[in-house]
Amino acid sequence: MDFNDSPEEALFRQTCHEWLASQATLKENNVALSFATLADKVAASRRWQNMKASAGYGAITWPKQYGGMGGSPLQNIIFRQEEAKFLVPPSQFNVSLGMVIPSLMAHANEDIKARHIAPALYGDELWCQLLSEPQAGSDLGMIRTKAVRCDDGRDGWIINGQKVWTSLAQFAEFGMVLTRTNPDVHSFAGMTAFFIDMKSPGVDIKPIVQANGHQEFNEVFLSDVYVPDSQRVGEIDSGWLVTMTALNSERMSIGGLVPDNLIEHVINQLKSLGEEMHDPALLTRLNQLYLKAHGLWLMQCQGMTALSKGQMPSAGLGTAKIIACEVLSEYAQLMFDLRGHEGILSPRAIDEHWSVIEDLWYGAAGMRIAGGTDEIVKNGIGERVLGLPPEPRTDKGKTFRELTERTLA
Amino acid sequence: MDFDFSSDQVQLREDLRRFMISASPRSCARAVIESDATMDHEVWEKIVEMGITRLSLPESLGGFGMGIIEQCIAAAEQGRQLAPVPSIASLYLAQQLLLQLPASEAREHYLHASADGNIFSVAAPIKTPWKTTISMENGALNGHHTLVLHAADADYLLVYAHCDDGTPVIAACEKKNVDIEPQPLIDASMSAAKISFKQTPCSVLAKGSVCEIALATTLNRAACLLSFEQMGACDAAFEMANEYAKERQAFGRAIGSYQAIKHKLVDLYTQQQLAHAHCLYAAWALHTNDAALPKAAASALLSSQQALTAMASENIHIHGGMGYTWELDCHLFFKRARFYASVLGNQHLWHARLGNELVYCDTMMEA
Asked: Residue B274 burial (CB < 10 Å; 0-12/13-18/19+)?
């Protein structure tokens, strides 16, 4: 048992590190790059993605035929660990390259793949995912955005509806959209996936102001948007399969949930308190945070060990997101408390480091909702890992039309 | 990255699981509670026969020469069965303490005896300052210790004492010359006693500051092994609750289908996964004798204690009224969890140790 790289892993890490060192400078005190606006951040991320792709690091795990490195999930983690040490823009391509394009690879025809994969890989085209709607969050089977066949002789579809929580839609060139094409079958069976040019007539994007003042996600209104049938992904009424491929592509990712050195920050802050730091209650809070943060890191090491042996990480790693949210929230709360009554000051008035803590504090609240709420994640673990029976469902065997009529009634 | 049990260790775990299920079904723990016995000698004999008492000792000392990680695996399997045997006293504390002492003929003799399954108890403080009322002068012990684990079952006692001039010693003596007064325990499948020495002849194994260093190291090593035993019990209680939640019907469906029960079980499972990771880290620190051992030991002990305490309590609750009966095994876990939570010092002691390691010792590796 050891925490060291195997010789091959060490060699790969060194190669990555050397390339990164030739392109960027190392972070000091773990301080990341900052950007005046989100637009600047996205633009910088596009340039960095282009540099990575040109050097073969654009998508470590993708097959070589699509411009990837054909590397293992573990090599992907190693690259990201090394990348995190450098002053480079944070990636805005997680949805594009981690979810949408893998789904295109699995379900789209050769023409689409030939046209779209490379520009996405090189950062020239950013993709978003148009999934959630005001009335369909955790239960995506209830989406109402409709796609109907054109009746004017064009070989295409007309899409109408509203999407919400769409990350980076305001910057994206393309969007994968899940639509309702058949209301008279079970809700998950009547959906079809298309991709649309985000500049198409009828696409109206309104950024949402988040609780922390940022505007990363959007409402997207689709009014009589025409999409040619050639932009359909997968079979008609098989959109759920396409969406599941995108959601599952994320599952192999390990790490990146919590910043490094959290505990060091708390200890440094604690030490600045002088005598007060000996308070056993404060030490207990530090310990409890450490037990979660370090425990999560250790669980991820177990996951990486499995990947290193060519196995799947244990199902227990499914709890990582829940633990990470708790770590971030408890970390930020403890740090604010350690400021004493100055905890009421806006972190922005202090320094960059405290702004990051404020972002984590808000971020944790959002992370508990995004990509599956805590409750949905717990249902998944309870049912798939622990083998507990699902809740009885009142939507079973009902068509989408029956379900919506009942909600309206 | 190679942070997990090896395939040989996984195989050993499977073998030991099968062995412990047949050697020490939970009815053995129950039988000890329901009788005047202080342990199950038959179970212990089988454990000795299986070689668990000599698992991690070097071959030169009568051992199998396997590693301490294998000992951790054996501890977890004993915990699963709530085995009513003196492993904490004899293996995690005494055997580990002997290993920390300077080489001598006497030490070698006792390690062979330990490997052969003789039971050892340790009469020593569990925290600094290392206080004791036991004195050692002219090869004889005098004084008492209020609570010594498995003293009534022991063949030998290892004793921390002070000489007249205050010099610490660790000495060994036979049980026959010691006055032993068993105490009723919260978990009667375990045992502990008040012991008194009166001119008890002993042989000195170590003298001077080496004794205290050995004691401190032993406590950390014992904490790691105890953490595995706790997680074995935690896993067994979890399986019991989870199975029941799948079977038990209420209002026309299995209670495990209700989110109130399902999410409770997922929360316990999450706590269990974190504790397992800390235990694995403790096994790694034991194996490599890494400087992180004190931190890893405290983390493993605290996280496994928290996981088992919550699990034992919710196991009763998920079983409803039946969980509160003598008939079901829930109370065996509940009592054992409470016993573990105090046996090497309470959570406040270990929180103080962990906090101290985190704030003052610079062995941070990640997160």
From this structure: buried
